[in-house]
Design goal:
This protein is of the alpha/beta class. The chain has 2 domains: about 140 residues, Rossmann fold (3-Layer(aba) Sandwich), CATH 3.40.50.1000; about 70 residues, DNA polymerase, domain 1 (Orthogonal Bundle). It has 10 helices and 6 strands; from the N terminus they run βαααααβαβαβαβαβα. The longest helix is centred in the middle third of the chain and has 18 residues. The chain binds 1,6-di-O-phosphono-beta-D-glucopyranose (B16) and magnesium ion (MG). 1,6-di-O-phosphono-beta-D-glucopyranose binds next to α1 and α3.
């Protein structure tokens, strides 16, 4: 029986994924390279430090440890500029309604995001009170595809992994859910994500339908 929902943030609740892509591309270009939207799929759900490692590999740039730290700060500054004006109007289709309905039905809700900026984004969207637990990039040692972020979310809700559904838009995140023993809902392309069930957006399903499905 499903009792808890574990939500990824970027690409599931709000389309901050486009801002991460923009900021990383700007950084790749600064390093004398670039990367495609297809390659960007490999960055989704991946921590800041691991994303930068991949971009350095793709651009073939040589970067000292000190420069690495500076580049991480720089990328985050660009990202923060891009999300400055973010508000409830930027939530993905049906996401806010889906969260409120689940909350009203007594389903326990946690966030499982790789982003260290997640609490700030939830505040901007005005949905912090719906979350019993917020697990983000500040609370985990191992990034997705390691299941730590979702295992901690389930634990914080007092639930077994098998009682939880993970909502994810990234390959790494779906893998994390599977390894962690949770059911998975993919937001995006079925072939890419390989989750248990897929939708284009949360607005295309309901909490009741998913609880019945699993
Ligand atoms: P930050 P999610 C992830 O968030 C993003 O998908 C990924 O692109 C980003 O690099 C990562 O957060 C770290 O974010 O730089 O803000 O700490 O999809 O797990 O909610
Ligand atoms: Mg995501």
């Amino acid at each position: 029986m499903i009792k808890g929902f574990l939500f990824d943030l970027d690409g599931v609740i709000v389309d901050t994924a486009v801002f991460h892509f923009q900021a990383w591309r700007q950084l790749a270009q600064k390093l004398g390279g670039d990367f495609t939207e297809e390659q960007n799929e490999q960055l989704k759900g991946v921590s800041r430090v691991d994303s930068l490692k991949k971009i350095i590999e793709w651009t073939g740039a040589t970067v000292s440890d000190e420069e690495f730290q500076t580049l991480m700060v720089e990328k985050n500054e660009w990202y923060l500029e891009l999300v400055q004006g973010l508000g409830p109007q930027d939530a993905l289709p049906g996401a806010l309604n889906f969260l409120q309905t689940a909350y009203d039905q007594g389903i326990k809700i946690a966030l499982g995001s790789a982003s260290k900026n997640a609490p700030m984004i939830l505040e901007k969207l005005g949905i912090t009170p719906l979350f019993t637990a917020i697990i983000d990039g500040n609370n985990v040692v191992n990034g997705k595809p390691h299941p730590e972020v979702f295992l901690k979310g389930a634990e914080a809700l007092g639930l077994e992994p098998s009682e939880c559904v993970v909502f994810e838009d990234s390959i790494a995140g779906v893998q994390a859910a599977k390894t962690g023993g949770m059911s998975s809902v993919g937001i995006g392309d079925a072939e890419t994500l390989q989750a248990d069930i897929h939708f284009t957006a949360l607005g295309d399903t309901t909490p009741e339908a998913l609880v019945a499905h699993f």
